Amino acid sequence: MKILLLGYGKMGKTIEQIALDRGHEIAGRIDINNRTDLESLGKSDVDVAIEFSSPEAAVDNIRDCLKRGWPVVCGTTGWLEHRTEIEELCRQTQGGFFYASNYSIGVNLFFRLNKILARFMKGYPSYHVSMTEIHHTEKKDAPSGTAITLAEGIIEQLPDKKRWINEAEDQSDAVSIESLREGTVPGTHLVRYDSDVDTIEIKHVAYSRQGFALGALTAGEWLVGKQGVFGMEDLLGESI
Ligand SMILES: NC(=O)C1=CN([C@@H]2O[C@H](COP(=O)(O)OP(=O)(O)OC[C@H]3O[C@@H](n4cnc5c(N)ncnc54)[C@H](OP(=O)(O)O)[C@@H]3O)[C@@H](O)[C@H]2O)C=CC1
Ligand SMILES: O=C(O)C1=N[C@H](C(=O)O)C[C@H](O)C1
After folding, report:
1. Is 145 annotated as a binding residue?
2. N or C: which terminus of the chain has fewer CB atoms within 10 Å of its end residue's CB?
3. pLDDT tens string for the chain (240 positions)?
4. Predicted ipTM > 0.95
5. 101 annotated as a binding-site residue
6. For the chain, which domains are there?
7. Among this protein's residues, is 139 annotated catalytic?
8. What's the pTM?
9. CA atoms within 13 A on the CB side of 94
10. What is the secondary structure of 85-136 as a DSSP string?
11. Residue 189 belongs to what H/E stretch?
12. 59, 93, 231 from 222: Cα distances, Å
């Protein structure tokens, strides 16, 4: 498979390594400094584009790929206010678009566990829910995309929670997400239910970027030849 890497930072480089180990080719490595290199690539030069850049760059990158007929796997977080527009463009161009706030299998299991726990907790209003996410100091967005997905899973289940806020402080109608930035932490997420007498806590800790990168590459392999808008539930189906 010929892979175009859009964003050649920590994730782009990790994906490249796994892709080469699996026998794929790299059709191009596009970073902020060489975006004009895209012009030299035709439709048949790229089987799939994998986009891990920055919140400001992602939307233009995705648009450029869809307009050229390249399917896109996007992992960049912090741009989702444009999601409807991108999904519409994907349909208009009859293209393929795949997005996940987190590509690791472990986090996708954790998403499922989070919803099940929230459903249990619905009957126990004496427990107060809150979340913490911890990432490296280079991370540009807060809260993390993963934390937002977790919060949405909780809001779906708990009738008193209508929104999330990116503050450690409490508001009764909101799930509070505390964002901490420490050293080189790849990604840690905690969901906590506190009562006066105890705490129930679930936690996912990524040890490296390997899980994210392998998941994104697997999504790319799966997306080739498909038309439409997809996410991890389509890739993992009943297995998760
Ligand atoms: N969904 C998931 O599973 C995961 C998502 N992420 C998300 O992926 C994104 C990237 O993460 P990460 O690799 O750690 O970040 P990095 O900052 O290490 O890499 C991003 C790269 O994109 C480049 N870039 C900036 N603007 C453009 C542009 N217009 N076109 C192409 N490239 C550009 C940056 O260049 P420069 O440095 O010169 O600005 C940088 O090299 C983040 O949004 C992060 O939250 C990360 C891990 C997992
Ligand atoms: O920026 C990161 O590094 C990560 N970003 C994603 C997010 O915002 O959830 C996924 C992962 O936690 C790493």
Report:
1. yes
2. C
3. 999 999 999 999 999 999 999 999 999 999 999 999 999 999 999 999 999 999 999 999 999 999 999 999 999 999 999 999 999 999 999 999 999 999 999 999 999 999 999 999 999 999 999 999 999 999 999 999 999 999 999 999 999 999 999 997 788 999 999 999 999 999 999 999 999 999 999 999 999 999 999 999 999 999 999 999 999 999 998 666
4. yes
5. yes
6. 2-103+210-239 (3.40.50.720), 105-205 (3.30.360.10)
7. yes
8. 0.96
9. 1
10. HHHHHHHHTT-EEEE-S---HHHHHHHHHHHHHHHHHTT-TTSEEEEEEEE-
11. strand 188-194
12. 22, 19, 11
CA distance 147 to 126: 23
**Residue 234: C-alpha distances to residues 77, 82, 89, 210, 223 (Å):** 19, 21, 20, 21, 10
Q: Measured between alpha carbons, how far is 92 from 83 in angstroms, rounded to an integer?
A: 14
Name the active-site residue from 2, 10, 115, 139: 139
Asked if 203 is an active-site residue, the reply is no
